[in-house]
Amino acid sequence: MRNNIYKNVLSELSPDEIKRSPKYDPSQPVTQNNEGKRNNQYQKPEFKEWVLFKFHAAPRSKVYIAGDFNNWDPTALKLGYHGKGVYSAIVLLPLGTYEYKFTVNGEWCNGQDCNDQVTNAFGTMNNRLIVERKMTHNGHPHTFSRLPESESHRLWSAPTGG
């Protein structure tokens, strides 16, 4: 009788697609890498959200953002200057949890308004960001805000306006 239950499961996948699917091991944690493999296998889109990072620093500062979303490269993503000490960058990130810090004139620092922080391997703190689908994150109201994803947006790091 139990086998009959499984014969009645409906799926949009063909039997071949199911046979080729990545192996599931319940003892292993779900990772972004494993999730990406499953999405590729099933041709599911990877959901992403636009995130606006903001930082306040003295005019003419060199402000960058580095995190596990860009391999912690301290000069890969420069924030644009808006005036009045406000720097920002818009980044398209896949859904997930990220750690990040800012560098200002070569010095690592956390966002001034970030309430969600975790200890890193060096014994200091990193900012933590949870990117969720079409949700507003209330933990960092002045550090970043959410923008809806659309095909007309592109990944960029220039100021969004004055």
Can you give a write-up of this model?
- With 162 residues, the chain is α+β, with helices and mostly antiparallel strands.
- The protein has two domains: 14-46, no CATH class; 48-147, Immunoglobulin-like (Sandwich), CATH 2.60.40.10.
- Helices cover 14% and strands 33% of the residues.
- The protein contains three helices and nine strands; from the N terminus they run H-H-H-E-E-E-E-E-E-E-E-E.
- The chain has helices spanning 2-7, 15-20, 32-41, and strands spanning 48-56, 63-67, 80-83, 86-94, 96-104, 107-109, 117-119, 125-131, 144-147.
- The strands form two sheets. Strands 2, 5, 6, 7 and 8 form a five-stranded antiparallel sheet that branches.
- It is elongated.
Count of extended strands: 9
Report the CATH architecture of the largest domain: Sandwich
CATH class membership of the largest domain: Mainly Beta
CATH-defined superfamily of the largest domain: Immunoglobulins
The outline comes out as: elongated
Which structural class is indicated by helix and strand composition? alpha+beta
Provide a count of the helices: 3
Question: Uncertain segments of ≥5 residues (pLDDT<50)?
Answer: 1-8, 135-162
* Beta-strand residue fraction: 25-35%
Into how many domains do the coordinates divide?
A: 2
| CATH topology group of the largest domain | Immunoglobulin-like
